[in-house]
């Protein structure tokens, strides 16, 4: 029997074959594609969202310099990268909920953009959402809030400025915020009911509040370490219900109107404002104590760079080992004036040859901590000669 095949069926079969081939080629290649976006030049696409729509998970979207007036939703695991943080601008003037850039997938990397909003549009967020996302090297300006509501995410090396709130998180967990420049915002970082956040090595200056909220979930930890808080209304502003466990050390609090506003009341877990001895606590520019003694109880002979009396925020919140100079101290700055000069070197030289227990021995002169003042200590100080400034704020 002869089978009759009509022309339309042949066409459909052919089309199916072509599509299958194309699909298989893409699958077989398994090579991630990089899609180029440019607003005004030759490129695969002229809007970022079109490129995202065309991409599959694993692809990269590379966005060239330009201004992109669009709301973006990233619903796939993509690397979305701008050519230059200052020259690739995503901007919206109208209210977008929740944000201009919305990350809705896992493991997205978003990097190299300026995201600019309009603070008069209520609730306009900068970059929102995400799980296990990496949001690095972006600049978020003039938004109602800059970065928000992330879980298990890494925010690093971003600039957040002129936002009502720089980082605004509610209900997230395992958040790592580091090396960001956070200035001239209403609130630098506001966290509500966030479990296990680490806020490390950021610089907060000229904000109404550096870090605020801190209304942790049950069992949560909040670590605030190695940050610099300068000229904020309040460095840390704690309010709401009691914390669970707040750990704050090796930060510099310099010339804020108040270093810590509304410190936490006592609760199940006490707040910790230092990292024990000799690691120490924080540098407080309004600390008025002196450094003449050393040791766990600050009653042993010799200076150690730690104030001999605690820095008392209130009766429940005490830094037992306040630092005499901004963190990290410069090795060799033995008179704790924030710089290494001739007087420091001379002081070490005068104690040269002494051992722990000798009248001339002081822990602060023993730079390598081997309980003796020798040539290696002197050489380290000489190596740092000239370092440091009389101005602690180099913003
Ligand atoms: Ca001391
Ligand atoms: Ca010095
Ligand atoms: Ca030594």
Kindly list the characteristics that best describe this protein.
about 400 residues, mainly beta, Type 1 dockerin domain, 3 domains, ten-stranded parallel β-sheet, binds calcium ion
Short description:
With 395 residues, this protein is mainly beta. The chain has helices at 7-29, 48-54, 342-350, 375-383; strands spanning 34-37, 60-63, 66-68, 72-74, 79-82, 88-91, 99-106, 109-111, 114-116, 125-131, 134-136, 139-141, 145-148, 154-156, 159-161, 165-170, 173-178, 181-183, 187-192, 195-200, 203-205, 209-215, 221-225, 228-230, 234-238, 245-249, 252-254, 258-261, 283-284, 293-294, 300-301, 311-314, 317-319. The strands form five sheets. A ten-stranded parallel sheet has the order 1-2-5-8-11-14-17-20-23-26, with helices on one face. It has a ten-stranded parallel sheet with strand order 3-6-9-12-15-18-21-24-27-29, with no helix packed on it. A nine-stranded parallel sheet has the order 4-7-10-13-16-19-22-25-28.
Structural write-up:
This protein starts with 6 loop residues before the first helix and ends in a 12-residue tail after the last helix. The chain folds into three domains: 32-163, Pectate Lyase C-like (3 Solenoid); 168-329, no CATH class; 342-383, Dockerin domain (Type 1 dockerin domain, Orthogonal Bundle), CATH 1.10.1330. α3 packs antiparallel against α4. The protein contains four helices and 33 strands. The protein has helices at residues 7-29, 48-54, 342-350, 375-383, and strands at 34-37, 60-63, 66-68, 72-74, 79-82, 88-91, 99-106, 109-111, 114-116, 125-131, 134-136, 139-141, 145-148, 154-156, 159-161, 165-170, 173-178, 181-183, 187-192, 195-200, 203-205, 209-215, 221-225, 228-230, 234-238, 245-249, 252-254, 258-261, 283-284, 293-294, 300-301, 311-314, 317-319. The strands form five sheets. Strands 1-2-5-8-11-14-17-20-23-26 form a ten-stranded parallel beta sheet, with helices on one face. Strands 3-6-9-12-15-18-21-24-27-29 form a ten-stranded parallel beta sheet, with no helix packed on it. It is mostly beta strands and 395 residues long. The model has no long low-confidence stretch (mean pLDDT 89). It binds calcium ion (CA) (3 copies).
């Amino acid at each position: 029997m002869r089978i009759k095949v009509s022309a339309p069926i042949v066409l459909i079969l052919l089309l199916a074959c072509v599509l299958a081939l194309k699909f298989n080629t893409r699958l077989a290649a398994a090579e991630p594609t990089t899609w180029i976006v440019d607003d005004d030049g030759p490129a695969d696409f002229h809007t970022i969202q079109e490129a995202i729509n065309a991409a599959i998970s694993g692809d990269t979207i590379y966005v060239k310099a330009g201004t992109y007036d669009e709301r973006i939703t990233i619903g796939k695991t993509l690397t979305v990268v701008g050519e230059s943080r200052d020259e690739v601008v995503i901007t919206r003037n109208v209210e977008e909920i929740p944000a201009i850039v919305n990350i809705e997938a896992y493991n997205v990397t978003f990097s190299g953009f300026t995201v600019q909003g309009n603070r008069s549009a209520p609730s306009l967020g900068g970059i929102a959402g995400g799980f296990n996302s990496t949001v690095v090297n972006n600049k978020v300006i003039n938004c109602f809030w800059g970065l928000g509501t992330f879980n298990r995410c890494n925010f690093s090396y971003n600039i957040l400025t002129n936002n009502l709130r720089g980082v605004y998180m509610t209900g997230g967990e395992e958040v790592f915020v580091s090396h960001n420049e956070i200035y001239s915002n209403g609130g630098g970082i506001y966290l509500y009911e966030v479990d296990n956040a680490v806020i490390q090595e950021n610089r907060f200056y000229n904000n109404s509040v550096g870090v605020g909220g801190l209304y942790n979930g049950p069992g949560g930890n909040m670590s605030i370490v190695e940050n610099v808080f300068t000229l904020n209304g309040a460095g840390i502003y704690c309010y709401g219900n009691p914390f669970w466990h707040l750990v704050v050390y090796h930060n510099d609090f310099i010339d804020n109107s108040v270093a810590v506003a509304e410190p936490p009341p006592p609760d199940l877990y006490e707040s910790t404002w230092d990292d024990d001895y000799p690691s120490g606590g924080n540098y407080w520019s309004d600390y008025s104590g002196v450094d003449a003694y050393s040791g766990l109880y600050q009653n042993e002979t010799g200076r150690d760079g730690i104030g001999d009396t605690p820095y008392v925020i209130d009766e429940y919140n005490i830094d037992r080992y306040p630092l005499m100079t901004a963190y990290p101290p410069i090795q060799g700055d033995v008179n704790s004036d924030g710089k290494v000069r001739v007087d420091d070197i001379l002081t070490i030289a005068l104690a040269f040859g002494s051992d722990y227990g000798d009248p001339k021995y002081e822990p602060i002169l023993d730079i390598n901590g081997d309980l003796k003042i020798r040539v290696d200590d002197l050489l380290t100080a000489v190596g740092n000669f000239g370092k440091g400034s009389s101005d602690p704020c180099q913003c």
